[in-house]
Hints:
This protein is mainly α. The protein has a domain at about 5-75: 434 Repressor (Amino-terminal Domain), CATH 1.10.260. It has helices at about 5-15, 20-25, 30-40, 45-55, 95, and strands at about 60-65, 70-75. Strands 1-2 form a two-stranded antiparallel sheet. A hairpin with a 7-residue loop joins β1 (about 60-65) and β2 (about 70-75). α2 (about 20-25) crosses α4 (about 45-55). About 15% of the residues are buried. The mean pLDDT is about 85.
Amino acid sequence: MCLSPAQCRAARALIGWSRDDLSSASKIAEATIADFEAGSFFPAERALQNIKQSLEDAGVLFIPENGGGAGVRLAKSESASIDTDETETVQYEEYLKNDAPPGAGG
């Protein structure tokens, strides 16, 4: 199986989708999604692929079972960037004073 019920629930939560949102995107009945997420029904592989593809298109990455358990995460958007400029150092006065007792070493 390409998708677990827990991954489906977690993926929807990550992107803030309701079951109705996923139903609209995947063209799978909302009741089918609800039953799948509850673990009481497992749709055909094609339906699971449609659900997974819709979630991936919305920015979810699926993490396969790799010894630590299967999971989900948000894809890093191309517009998101982390400031890695390390040329500026900021020092706070309260961290500059030596408050260790004499002989503390280090």
